[in-house]
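Please check this chain.
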Amino acid sequence: MALVRPDTAMNWVSGVVLYILIWWVALFAVLPIGTHAVQDPDDASGWRGAPAKPRLWMKVGVTTLVACVVWALAYGIIQSDWISFREGYFAAPKD
């Protein structure tokens, strides 16, 4: 059993698309962390609005790190024979 089979190798386009998808999901998971609403609501509507200090660049950095780790794990699983959709239990039935 080889660790990487050439017929199942991920090409660079698939790798980039997978990274972008993982990055967006991670962004929406990281965005609410550490945000606090404005303490004084608007007098007219009571709306508290956007966070006072959203720290978006810090969240972009954390999102990028999280996405790199998740992408590396996904890449390793895809390149290995551990889970395969071409043969074994998860494979589609052959006609």
In short: The mean pLDDT is 83.
